[in-house]
Amino acid sequence: MTIRIFVSAVLTASVFLSSQIQADAYSEYRENPSADTAFAYIHQVASHPRCGNCHGAVENGLHRPTVGDRRKIHPMNISFIHNLVLRAEGDGFVQIPDTAQPVNCRSCHHNSNGASPGMPPGAANDLMPGFVWHMPPVSMLLPADISPAMLCEKWLDPASNSFLAVRGGRDDMKTFEKEFVHHASDDPLVRWSWNPGPGRTPAPGTHADFVAAMKLWIRNGAACPDPS
Ligand code: HEC
Ligand code: HEC
């Protein structure tokens, strides 16, 4: 009897603890919004599987998308070889046709989520026409263990934070603010992370809180946390 009560108390405590740890950065930001807590929350989002799965992982030298909360390599031998290549045109993006590769992300991933768990997710919106399901280059990996300082340095590096648009960075903070706030608020792929379809855990917090945190962090100078 005593043992049973003890075991269930330990179980309850550890379930409580792990949900506490997960919710940490988000609830700290909500309780005490500052540029520092905002970036900690942004880091919690960016290292979540809903963001990291598209940004991918390297397996045997190949850059591949990953799936699920445990970030397994995408089934069916999918890799960057099947990626769409987009070009900015007018107010939107158009796909550059790749006749050598008949199968691409869009063969399975459409403008909205599949109706049941295990079906391909999908995303699109009219705020960024044509910016549909595809993956970034390998320089933009978002591994689960990326440190806040590394994430911050990566994003502020103008040479590596886009291959489609000029996003600024340390050298041009005005463009950085405009582009990163736009990307956080309007990008259908970012927005999808809070609307990932049946059977998938959404990214932490809410999309609106993520956009507000991005604004708060950047408007206070986009400071990076200590590398420790
Ligand atoms: C469906 C795939 C997909 C998902 C999901 C996704 N991204 Fe991306 N992300 C991309 C692509 C493609 C690019 C490259 C765009 C470019 O070069 O302009 C990109 C680029 C970025 C960039 C530009 C800078 C860089 O170095 O990474 C940021 C920031 C970013 N994503 C953040 C996020 C966050 C945060 C989430 C989750 C809330 C997320 N992404 C979810 C596909 C995705
Ligand atoms: C032949 C069909 C097919 C192709 C082509 C394909 N996918 Fe998928 N993808 C799927 C299916 C099915 C799932 C759902 C798997 C699941 O949830 O277990 C999926 C899931 C994903 C997920 C997981 C989302 C999450 O967070 O769990 C990502 C990311 C992804 N695909 C990216 C891509 C990218 C990027 C490409 C192109 C380079 C691509 N896929 C090409 C069928 C495909």
What does it look like?
With 228 residues, the chain is mostly helical. It has eight helices and six strands. A two-stranded antiparallel sheet has the order 1-2. Helix 2 (35-46) packs across helix 8 (207-219) and helix 6 runs antiparallel to helix 8 (207-219). The longest helix has 30 residues, at 2-31. It starts with a helix and ends in a 9-residue tail after the last helix. One heme C binds at residues 45-46, 50-51, 54-55, 133-136, 140, 154-155, 160-165, 189-190, 192-193, 203.
Please indicate the count of domains. Answer: 1
Bound molecules: heme C
What is the ordering of alpha helices and beta strands?
A: HHHEEEEEEHHHHH
What fraction strand? 5-15%
Average pLDDT figure: 90
| Straight-line distance between termini | 46 Å
Main sheet attributes: strand count, strand direction, barrel closure: 2 strands, antiparallel
- Helicity level, as a percent range? 40-55%
Task: Give the tags.
8% strand; 41% helix; mainly alpha; two-stranded antiparallel sheet; binds heme C; 228 residues
Per-chain topology:
Blueprint: H1 2-31, H2 35-46, H3 49-55, E1 57-59, E2 62-64, E3 66-67, E4 72-73, E5 86-89, E6 92-95, H4 105-108, H5 148-156, H6 173-186, H7 188-192, H8 207-219
Antiparallel strand pairs: 1-2, 3-4, 5-6
Helix pairs in contact: 1-2, 2-8, 6-8
